[in-house]
Amino acid sequence: MMCAAFAQAPQQAAPQPGAPMQAPKPMNPEQQAERQAEGMAKNLQLSADQQAKVKAVFLEQRTKIEAARKDNAADPSKRGEAMRSARDEADKKLQGILTADQWKKYQETMQHHGPMKPMQPAPAAAPKQ
Asked: For the whole model, what pTM was predicted?
């Protein structure tokens, strides 16, 4: 009897303290592109037009990466090459969308964080003494 009562207990919205954390739900390519575009807009002060174009570039990139994962699941070298190709193509398109200053800041950030991490400003250099 206790099992039936337990099974019908409502689920709680927030995890209890000490409860194991659940992994976040994976994002689809559209959500990933939106997140990347929002991060770039914030950190590079993109115009609305730039943000829309950047989102389209990231959506195309994320779609190609997902396809590479599915198509080349058994061959890591082919999958890696397809992912690098998608990133390189996206970078070429981004360079045409961003101003020279924005591109420079984007490259500095990518050098610091890597291409697959959320875009955040690179840390400022320590002052010389």
From this structure: 0.67
Number of domains in the chain: 1
Q: Which domain holds residue 50?
A: 29-113
- Distance (Å, rounded) from C-alpha 34 to C-alpha 19? 31
Q: How would you write the chain as a 3-class SS string? A: CHHHHHHCCCCCCCCCCCCCCCCCCCCCHHHHHHHHHHHHHHHHCCCHHHHHHHHHHHHHHHHHHHHHHHHCCCCHHHHHHHHHHHHHHHHHHHHHHCCHHHHHHHHHHHHHHCCCCCCCCCCCCCCCC
Q: What is the CA radius of gyration of the chain?
A: 20
Q: Is residue 104 part of a domain?
A: yes
Query: Is residue 18, in this structure, part of any structural domain at all?
Result: no
For range 27-34, the mean pLDDT: 88
Residue with tokens 């690098």: 84
Task: Using the predicted structure, report yes or no on whether residue 123 has a pLDDT greater than 90.
Answer: no
- Find the range with the poorest average confidence among 61-65, 67-71, 114-118: 114-118
Residue 1 scores a pLDDT above 50? no
